[in-house]
Design a protein that fits this description.
Radius of gyration: 21 Å
Number of domains: 3
CATH topology of the largest domain: Butyryl-CoA Dehydrogenase, subunit A, domain 3
Helix content: 40-55%
Shape: globular
Order of helices and strands: HHHHHHEEEEEEEEHEEHHHH
Strand content: 15-25%
Distance between the termini: 33 Å
Structural class: alpha+beta
Largest sheet: 4 strands, mixed
Number of helices: 11
Strand order of the largest sheet: 1-4-5-8
C-alpha cells in the first residue's frame, strides 16, 4: 500500500495494523480449506465483530465504533491486499453495502434490532438485487411483494447473491407495484428462517472461491409490513443513493489487489532467470513494470480523492463510476501482465498470482458492469 496518504490519520494506521494481524492469525491458517469448501467458516464472523472489523461506521448507540467510511476502507484494502478475496467480499457486502441501507433508510426499530447484531457478527446480511435475466437492469426485476393486510407476500428468485448461503437477513429488491416502473420497486427485509424462503445451491465460480454465492428463492414468503425498508416505491432512489459507495468499495478492493499482484511480481522477476540472468534486468520487464507502477500511482490518487469526497458527502455517481471503471479495468490489465511474467507457473493455482488473476475478473462485472459505468459517465458529458 502507498505510504503517507493524507486521507488517513493515526487512528486508521492503528486499525490497519489490527486488520493485518487478524488476516494473518484468523484467516491465513484456514484460507485454503475455505477456498476448497466454497465458503468461510461461520465462526469467523463473531471473531471479526469482536475485532471491530464489521460495520465500523455504525454509531455507538447501535453498538458500533462510530467511525466513518475511511475505517471501512482500511478493512477493505488490507483484506484485499492480503489476497483473501472471499472473506473480503463477504465482509464488504455486509459492512459496506447492506449496513448503509439500514443506517440511512431503516426505522429506529429496525436499526436497534439489526445493527448491533451486524456489528457483532451475530447476524450476516446480504442484499438481493440481481435476478436470472436481469443483471444491471434493475427495472426488469420480477420478484414481487403483494400487500395482504399487515403483511407482504413475496414470490420470486434472486441469483449471484454474495453471503447467499450464510445470510440470516436479506435486503430484497421487490416489485410492489407491477405498473409503477422504477417507482414500483421497494426494499424489504427478509429473515431467512421464514417459511417459504430457501437458499439455493452455492454457485461454482471462477474466483472468490471462499465467498459463498447463491441463488435465493421466495415462495409466498410472508413478512410484516414493518419489514419495509424506507418508503414503498422508494427502492430506486435508495439504490441510486447507495450505489456510489458500493462502487467506491469495489474500486478500493481492486486497487489493493492490483497493488498486491504488482508487489509479488516485482519480487519474482528478480528471482526467475532466463538466458542466465533475472528477467527483471531485461528492458522489456523494467519498462512494463514502470507502466504498471504509474497506473497504480494514478489509481491510488483518484481513489483517495473519491474517498475524501465520500467522507464529506460529496461523492457523485459519475466520480464513483469513473473510479470503478478505471480501477477495475486497470486491475485486469495489470494482473494479466503480472501473470505473464510468471510464465507457466502463473497458470498454476499453487502460485498466488493465479488466484489473484481469477479473483480480479468479477470486479469488472458486479456493482454494475464496465459497460454500465460508461453509460453512466457518458450522461455527464
Amino acid at each position: 500500500m502507498l505510504q503517507n496518504r493524507p486521507v488517513f490519520d493515526e487512528e486508521h494506521a492503528l486499525l490497519r495494523e489490527s486488520v493485518r494481524r487478524f488476516a494473518a492469525t484468523k484467516i491465513q491458517p484456514h484460507f485454503g480449506e475455505w477456498e476448497e469448501a466454497g465458503i468461510i467458516d461461520r465462526s469467523l464472523w463473531p471473531v471479526a465483530g469482536k475485532a471491530g472489523l464489521l460495520c465500523a461506521q455504525v454509531p455507538e448507540r447501535y453498538g458500533g465504533i462510530g467511525g466513518d467510511f475511511r475505517h471501512n476502507a482500511v478493512v477493505i484494502e488490507e483484506l484485499s491486499y492480503s489476497g483473501f478475496a472471499g472473506p473480503a467480499t463477504d465482509f464488504s457486502v455486509h459492512s459496506d453495502v447492506c449496513c448503509g441501507y439500514l443506517l440511512h433508510y431503516g426505522s429506529e426499530e429496525q436499526k436497534k434490532k439489526w445493527l448491533p447484531r451486524m456489528v457483532a457478527g451475530e447476524t450476516v446480511c446480504a442484499i438481493a438485487m440481481t435476478e436470472p435475466g436481469t443483471g444491471s437492469d434493475l427495472q426488469g426485476i420480477r420478484t414481487k411483494a403483494v400487500r395482504d393486510g399487515d403483511e407482504y407476500v413475496i414470490s420470486g428468485q434472486k441469483t449471484f447473491i454474495s453471503n447467499g448461503q450464510m445470510c440470516d437477513l436479506v435486503i430484497v429488491v421487490v416489485r410492489t407495484n407491477p405498473d409503477g416502473g422504477s417507482r414500483g420497486m421497494s426494499l424489504v427485509l427478509v429473515e431467512t428462517d421464514r417459511a417459504g424462503f430457501r437458499h439455493g445451491r452455492n454457485l461454482e465460480k471462477l474466483g472468490h472461491l471462499s465467498s459463498d454465492t447463491s441463488e435465493l428463492f421466495f415462495d409466498q414468503v410472508r413478512i410484516p409490513v414493518s419489514n419495509l425498508l424506507g418508503s414503498e416505491g422508494g427502492a430506486m432512489g435508495a439504490l441510486m443513493s447507495e450505489l456510489p459507495q458500493e462502487r467506491l468499495t469495489i474500486a478500493l478492493h481492486s486497487i489493493a489487489a492490483a497493488q498486491k499482484a504488482f508487489d509479488i511480481t516485482k519480487d519474482y522477476v528478480q528471482e526467475r532467470k532466463a538466458f542466465g540472468q533475472p528477467i527483471g534486468t531485461f528492458q522489456n520487464t523494467r519498462f512494463r513494470l514502470a507502466d504498471l507502477k504509474s497506473d497504480l500511482a494514478v489509481g491510488w490518487a483518484y481513489v483517495d480523492q473519491c474517498l475524501r469526497e465520500h467522507v464529506r458527502g460529496e461523492l457523485t455517481t459519475y466520480a464513483a463510476s469513473t473510479a470503478k471503471l478505471w480501477t477495475t479495468e486497470m486491475h485486469g490489465r495489470l494482473v494479466d501482465q503480472c501473470l505473464q511474467f510468471f510464465g507457466g507457473y502463473g497458470f498454476m493455482r499453487e502460485y498466488e498470482i493465479c488466484r489473484l488473476f481469477a479473483d480480479a475478473r468479477v470486479l469488472r462485472i458486479y456493482g454494475g458492469t464496465s459497460e454500465i459505468m460508461r453509460e453512466l459517465i457518458s450522461r455527464s458529458l
